[in-house]
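=== RUN LOG ===
request id: a7f3
mode: sequence -> structure
chains: 1
length: 136
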Amino acid sequence: MHSCKSRIVTLPKSFLQDYDENFASYKQQVESLTNQAEKLDQHKNLDARFKSSLEANQTYVIDLWKAVHRRAAELKDRLGKHMEELKEFDQLAENIEKWMESLESHCGFAVPRSANIDQLKTQFEHVKVCSKMIKT
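=== RESULT ===
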């Protein structure tokens, strides 16, 4: 077993004398440090509120960006579908033109093409007459 003996710490007299002589200065320094610590705590609280607000704004902006990105993807998909429909329409129009050209060459008459309504009526009447002649 170890025995515990009290040890008395003795400080040099110069240390005690220095403390006595400069007590007011030390006290002022401690108060200054305490004030600075309190200010830092206040800034810490302000910084925490600012950080919280900044994080909330950041979350909001990220959510908006995700919504914009989703919307852009939807519009891109929709545009792709419209482009496919347009290609199908162009193909059908091309097929109709080819059919009309084959009809012209096979039947021996031209499909009416005119911007003038009277000419179209005349051509249509001609087609009717030809149709009757073919049937009889």
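=== NOTES ===
The chain has a mean pLDDT of 79.
Residues 18 and 103 are 120 Å apart (CA to CA).
=== END ===
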